[in-house]
Design goal:
Layout lengths: L2 E5 L3 H10 L5 E5 L12 E3 L6 H9 L3 E4 L6 H8 L8 H8 L1 H10 L7 E4 L2 H11 L3 E5 L9 E4 L5 H8 L4 E5 L5 E9 L5 E3 L3 E6 L2 E7 L5 H17 L4 E10 L2 E8 L9 H4 L4 H10 L11 E8 L5 H5 L4 E5 L9 E9 L2 H12 L10
Parallel strand pairs: 1-2, 1-4, 2-3
Antiparallel strand pairs: 5-8, 6-7, 6-8, 9-10, 9-11, 9-13, 11-12, 12-15, 13-14, 15-17, 16-17
Helix pairs in contact: 1-10, 3-4, 4-5
The chain binds adenosine monophosphate (AMP).
Adenosine monophosphate binds next to β14.
Length: about 375
């Protein structure tokens, strides 16, 4: 029986295991937190990222390694790769962890990004603001997620407090993109180089956290083609194996690449019920060298994140056709605790189902 080792044991890992059990796979997770939710359904080895002995023991009990958490130290992935296959490769992880490297990759692949400049010192920040203008977004180059580790700069007096909050780490300043909407493209690449793409997804964030995804996004076909082109080139350039997600802004009728996640992604959770093959299953198929599954949709789909608190499950399950996923995590403000997916034959039916979810989930983005 193939044993898949997963670095990180959050909800993404949990959903990977749920997709892998029908394929006869076993899972062992590694996460510094002994409470991590994938531990409820698979073995969890809990130790720090610098516990060499624990990592060696973990490598010894799995056939291959992947990650569901992108802030795994690259050195850990590289060391494990000396013992077992690691997918996506540590190089893909390294690029995806660093907003500066990511932006260079997008540019090298001929894709638009926000204007950007690296910032290490307070003087760098002044020079970068002079070059890019305001408003702009100051971000940590690594370890940011769900809007953490970033500040929007609107006026010169914002520079000092933003640098005081984020400085001391490598930073990047990005020009502010007044986007029309946010989109993402999810794609998979197998060990033999075959690729598969899900339709472009439209995403709504609030306070830097994803609230709602709708697929397929209603965009000009040329934009969908352009997103697939970028994803295909990125997968090829990184000799990537597994699922990747690229977050994009639509701005003035064109796409601007924002960032890349070297893993399954929240904006692809709808694929569990909304696609013939989910992102989780295709990630596993890719790692194992199995054929990738069909990514066609079963209608139109929406996913609503449950953040900070979970409504009474009965009130969500009462909604016809709703699929409820709870991650088994204790409630905390801003925390992703679960999601609801709706799959309907057309947009009118999807809108009606979303309105019913909006009456239960306190989420302003749903009544847009
Ligand atoms: P990120 O961590 O880069 O995904 O940023 C979190 C959210 O902040 C994004 O989903 C956008 O809503 C917003 N954001 C990030 N970068 C920019 C930018 N350069 N211009 C405008 N909004 C941004």
């Amino acid at each position: 029986m193939t044993v898949v080792g997963v670095l990180g044991a959050g909800q993404l890992g949990r959903m990977l295991a749920l997709a892998g059990y029908p394929l006869g796979l076993r899972f062992v997770f590694y996460d510094p937190s002994a409470e991590a939710p994938a531990g409820h359904l698979a073995e969890l080895r809990s130790s720090s990222w610098d516990d060499h002995d624990a990592l060696v023991a973990f490598a010894g009990e799995v056939d291959l390694v992947t990650y569901e958490f992108e802030n795994v130290p690259v050195a850990v992935a590289s060391r494990l790769a000396e013992r077992v296959p690691v997918h996506p490769s540590p190089r893909a992880l390294e690029v995806a962890q660093d907003r500066l490297k990511e932006k260079h990759l997008f540019r090298d692949l001929g894709f638009g990004t926000a204007p950007f400049a690296p910032v290490d010192t307070r003087d760098d920040l002044s020079r970068a603001v002079e070059a890019l203008g305001l408003p702009a977004v100051l971000k940590t180059r690594t370890e940011g997620y769900d809007g953490k580790g970033q500040r929007v700069l609107r006026r010169p007096s914002d520079l000092d407090p933003a640098f005081a909050a984020l400085g001391g780490r490598p930073l990047i300043l990005e020009g502010f993109i007044p986007f029309t909407r946010e989109l993402s493209i999810l794609a998979a690449r197998g060990r033999n180089g075959d690729t598969a793409f899900w339709p472009l997804v439209e995403n709504v964030h609030r306070d830097g956290i994803l609230r709602l995804s709708v697929a397929p996004a209603q965009v000009a076909p040329t934009l969908a083609e352009s997103a697939m082109g970028l994803a295909g080139r990125a997968l090829e350039a990184l000799d990537y194996v597994g699922v990747v997600a690229i977050e994009l802004f639509e701005h003035e009728g064109r796409l601007v690449a924002n960032e890349m996640a070297p893993r399954v992604h929240n904006s692809g959770h709808w694929t569990i019920e909304g696609s013939r093959t989910s992102q989780f299953e295709n990630h596993l198929r890719a790692l194992l060298g199995l054929p990738l599954g069909d990514t066609a949709m079963n209608g139109v789909a929406a996913m609503v994140n449950l953040i900070g608190e979970t409504p009474d499950p009965a009130s969500l399950l009462e909604i016809e056709g709703s699929h409820l996923h709870l991650y088994g995590k204790p409630a905390r403000p801003g925390r992703k605790l679960g999601h609801v997916t709706l799959v309907e034959p057309d947009r009118t039916a999807l809108g009606a189902a979303l309105a019913r979810v909006a009456s239960v989930v306190d989420e302003p983005s749903l009544s847009r």
